[in-house]
Amino acid sequence: MSTATTDTLPHSPDHGLVAEKSALGLTRPDHSKSFWVDWLTTVDHKKIGIMYGAAALFFFVVGGIEALIIRAQLAVPENDLISAQLYNQLFTMHGTTMIFLAVMPLSAAFFNYLVPLQIGARDVAFPRLNSFSLWTFMAGAIVLNASWFFQVMQYMGSEAFNLKSGTVTLTDIVPAVGWFGYAPLSSELYSGIGGDFWIISLQILGVASIAASLNFIVTIINMRAPGMKMMRMPVFTWMTLVTAFLIILAFPAITIALAELMFDRNFGTNFFRVSQGGQPILWQHLFWVFGHPEVYILILPAMGIVSEILPTFSRKPLFGYPIVIFSGAVIGFLGFAVWSHHMFTTGLGKIATAAFSLLTMAIAVPTGVKIFNWIGTLWGGRIKLTAPMIFALGFVWMFMMGGFSGIMHSSAPADAQQQDSYFVVAHFHYVLIGGSVLALIGGIYFWLPKVYGKMWTGALSNWVAGTIVVGLNITFFPMHFLGLLGMPRRTHTYLAVNEWGAMNMVCTIGAFILAMGILLFLIDIYLCVTKGKPAGNDPWDGRTLEWAISSPPKHYNFAAVPKIPARDCWFAHKYGSAKQKIGWQKEDHGIHMPSQSWWPLFASCGFLILGIAFPIKHAGVPYMGWLAILGLTILVFGIIMWSLEGPGGYHLHPEEEDGEDSKPAPTGSGAPVSEEVHR
Amino acid sequence: MFPGQNSLRIVSKFFALFTLALPLLFTGCAWTGRTSTLDPKGPIAQIQFDLFMITVYVCVFLFVVVGGAFLYVVWKYRERPGQPETPIPQNSHGNPLIEIGLIASSVFMLVIIAVPTVQAIWITHDMPDRPDSHLGAYYGGEFLSPGEEEEVLTIRAEGYQWWWAFEYPQLGLTTGNEFVIPAGKVVRLELRSKDVIHSFWLPKIAGKVDLIPGRNNWMWIQAGNSYNEWLLDQGLPPMQEGHRAEYENYLEAEVYDMYYGQCAEFCGDSHAYMLFRTKVVSPEEFEAWVAEQKQPAPAPDGGGDWGAWFARALGDPSSLAGDPIQEGAYLYHTKGTCIQCHKVEGSPSSNGVLGPDLTKVGSRTSLAAGWMDHMSADGGINAGKQYENLVDWIYASQDIKPGNLMYYGDNALQHIINPEDPDANPLTREEVAKIATWLQTLQ
């Protein structure tokens, strides 16, 4: 990143903060004084990350409330608290929300915020595309949940949806097809327009995910600071890269499946219609070719976070860094070769069953390697039980438990008893809550002081961790036994004679304890934000580059370009030899910053309109087809304007220096940061 | 059977009690509950259970070793309060030998699971061809087509939203939601669906196989051990006669029973209400049951001539007054419109196929696909409860199983949103009671 590369840009180095007009004469909304304009048009990866995180936490709460209603319904046998249809809608929305609107965007929040900071970049490679990903995600999330609004209208007697005379004879407006949407239950014969809401929102979310992933791949490959070789990258950035590849390879499969299902439902094709020679099993293959890598899309970022936290608070480098990264890549690769273990009961035949069974066992090896290496990291370290560390240790333990039940149903004949029973529910909640969610919360504890510049207030975090882990185990451990005792999933009630009542009551109590833990967590965030003391640049004695800059970081991230001499570069800089100092290289022309833009938001609004109009059209509401076309037009127009508004960009000349107000190393070999490192 | 399975089984049962029953007792539940996979009653469920226990042992071992190492490390190397600042711990970056060793031992642990897994996949997919399981060996009745003495009993399980039809193609009978199989004999199940995907799960007998429209899935099941398998299980030499009485005692004590299953694939609104039950009986009882089930329903007046009864009933309905059985049958065939979907063998007009076959509905121990139970303690029918269930079900089936097709067909769900629909229940409770009275006689 020498000064020469920016000479070709169509502006002079000294125009400072003047917003630039494009070829069309449009002004991009840089430096707006308005809070709203600033956030809506932002291309700053940090602001986008914060918005991803806030939205994800919101939907995490929504999905959690759905889960609590589910648990309340199941607390006692033969309960009639809610109807079968509402129950089915709740578990469909709970699954879809938690996966696509909570855990994935929360991971995306970390990607956005951290990856450029960790690799020493000023922003992602395509800042406006990043903004487009965010707003498209929001559009998809709103479309999916808009179905609740229309469902309530329907309950309240609105005549808007004349379902009886419309093309749809079924009444669910909120999807009730399960997060897996198996054909033919998701066809127009067996589900209402909820199916359409589900399809279109997942398609929109898929666009957001693929766009974001391409962005991160290009960013990580191309935007690394000088000296930041691939094998010097922080593990979290590595896992982001693997996850991004998984997303761009896995999402096309579900895109195809959803398009086929949408065509079946709306345009009379016969992909899954048995009466016309279609094959419902095709859906399952396409869905799980996406669905299994999706599992790793949810867990690999969490593993990346844990691989940052454990070394920091053991004050040791990650044990076996290359093999941890290689394991992550192997998990990603094998993730595409095990999809049929979700289909062991579909009559695959001996050979396929055996092959997928063995491959599924094989995936336990790289996963186990990660656990061994985390323990190796702790070994001989100096373990400081801070809040992030407690969550990271909890992650290792709970994820290991989830891994064991995973090994149990890798054995296909044993899985024939476990498939679609509560045993599976127990398994993936251990992996997703005990795994992903614990790590993500740990990540928030770790990085919020960086993001907000304030430190956590007190010991509430211990209560948060304790309540969540206890609640998690009380909720989900008995579910193993419920499954073994024959309780199938996705049933809205069960007979008292089956003797599942007592354990279900325990599960329900646990779910409310877990919810209490999440509530405490939100309170802790509130306390940190309102009452926290300034965190300083490097509150945890961190290891990676983001701890070298101010908290919160300036919008240009780095005043000077860092030159990276080593892995764990900030730690090496603080404690290492003179050769391991980070070199700070200022650019003569100042910092080149991207301009903000309205068009990504505008284009995404097209998705919002399309997404809501399309399912409603299927319910027979007039003019909705035209509205859908309007939405598409807005989308296309927005993208065209975006490409025509010109590159924009401006230069900054910050006065301050990076790395200077880091606290001196407490003890040890390293000398405090001295002036010679800031060139 | 894989090597060492017998000794493993004994160890399995021992460990199962400890590792599994303790938490169950703790939460107040019986591990031999009626759908427990931990109490297998047939070779398939047994293999699946044994395999599960192998995975449990491996995982418990790993849990102790890895979890123990984890706890030890966290405890040993934790920073203690007041501990003086120490230099940065030695910064090792990994150790190839340790890594390779750990990978190799993980692979070894997985091989312990993988070998019996592959064996069990083959066992559960290859239906054994044992002469003692051939229909001809234990069933003395007539067959529909020649050559069937050489086949095992075949049952075609067909899943509908939300009930089951069980057809015995070799024996020419069809029943709904409850079926009967002989103990110790291999049974082939053909799994079919015409609407959405369902899954057949009879936990004590076998794990699931899905019923997928457009696919011809099948599975084999067996309730209890055959005589030879039982001999092996007892450690006796195979093919040895002279233990038949003890074998019969074993069947009596452990196998003859009602078994309970449920649809395990989400299949729409009333998925939770799609249950079924399987009665396991001796071959002799099975033969008697088949003979009984093949009898058509008698005419409602108790005679054998449906035609004459129809002529009389349709000619002068008032002549039926005072006999709720005949009145019920008349309502069933006329105002109730039941005949559009249901079949009663014998009746000339009740030939519907969209709902369960009702020819022997009075002999079944449950209603609404296993949700409404009226089995008496001795396994027979509790007639009072049965009558109550029939009335409740026919009168308000949409409240009990939302979305089912009774009365409303494709508009069933409309009824739920708008119960005041003018097409609402066409029958009064008194009329329903009469229909129930007649259906009870269909035994």
Protein model, in words:
- The complex is a heterodimer of chains A (679) and B (443).
- Chain A has 679 residues and is mainly α.
- Chain A has 18 helices and four strands.
- In chain A, strands 1-2 form a two-stranded antiparallel sheet. Chain A has a two-stranded antiparallel ribbon with strand order 3-4.
- The relative contact order of chain A is 0.12.
- Residues 1-16, 164-168 and 661-679 of chain A have low confidence and may be disordered.
- With 443 residues, chain B is an alpha+beta fold.
- Chain B contains twelve helices and twelve strands.
- Chain B has helices at 5-26, 43-76, 96-125, 135-138, 227-233, 244-255, 283-293, 306-315, 324-333, 383-400, 412-417, 429-440, and strands at 153-160, 163-168, 173-176, 178-182, 186-193, 198-202, 206-211, 217-222, 257-263, 275-281, 366-367, 372-373.
- In chain B, the strands form three sheets. Chain B has a five-stranded mixed beta sheet with strand order 3-2-1-5-8, with no helix packed on it. In chain B, strands 4-10-9-6-7 form a five-stranded mixed beta sheet.
- In chain B, helix 2 (43-76) packs antiparallel against helix 3 and helix 10 crosses helix 12.
- The interface between A and B is large, with 107 and 109 residues.
Helix proportion of residues of chain A, in percent? 55-70%
Q: What is the fourth-level CATH superfamily of the largest domain in chain B?
A: Cupredoxins -  blue copper proteins
> What spatial form of chain A do the alpha-carbon principal axes imply?
globular
Radius of gyration of chain B using CA atoms only: 28 Å
